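Illustration 12: Putative short-chain type dehydrogenase/reductase.
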Amino acid sequence: MAKALDGKVVLVTGAGGGIGRDIALMAASEGAAVVVNDLGASLKGTGQTESAAQAVVAEIKAAGGDAIADGGSVTDPEAARAMIEAGVKEFGRIDAVVNNAGILRDGFFHKMTYEDFDAVVKVHLYGSFNTSRAAADYFREQEGGALVHMTSTSGLIGNLAQANYSAAKLGIAAFSKSVALDMKRWSVRSNCIAPFAWSRMISSIKTETPDQVARVAKLKQMTPAKVAPMACFLMSDKADGVSGQIFAVRNNEIFLFNQPRPVRSVHSGHGWTADEIAERAIPALRSQFTPLEVSADVFSWDPV
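Figure caption equivalent — predicted structure in token form:
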């Protein structure tokens, strides 16, 4: 029986642990040759070692798969291109990229520094651009390819103390949609996953109150392995026609997110003044306002 990714070559960034590791392992088990990228940095993006990527490569090879390690930074366009070219050189082609690499530097906005904002946006948003752009030339030439980007409900819905992370993750959703539109003519797909999974990226959640402890206990039920099947599906030929979409995976649940569209309108034949907006427009629109919620307010039920 043919496997979902037989003959394909995929790059998974940030694959030394957590969600990326499980995607790399499952992609290999589904027949793909994998470029396992991981900088080996701390959660804040400091330090560097290739040992994490090499350990995942060893796991893949021990299971009979094929993989190579890469320790480059996705924030460097040349390093991102080198990741793609390493796959092409070693395995002959590149078919998919999973943009999973990420860091966190949480902090309330009034305390956030430029450096912390810049570092997070560069890894998540610029990193997704760098690897995708490097792959795009090969995808066009072979008239096919798949991009899978990791977004987050922190950006799609909202979260406290994550202005940098939220901005990057919502930016990734818009980026993915634009790439899907631009690359459609070459049969290139671009989609997003908002993963719910216990990993290093969310292990810094505070556990100072009983509610926070209970929330973390629920999150620990949602393993990174639950996210991998969706990523592998989106990389496979079975996902033909699926592009420009935003999915979420929460334990055994799969969600499709809506995307911004007008929900209500008001009209004035002569235009508006500020007073008229306050008196007529806002009262008519208020019932459709999006509430100031965080992800936990929207996904308020236990994972199943």
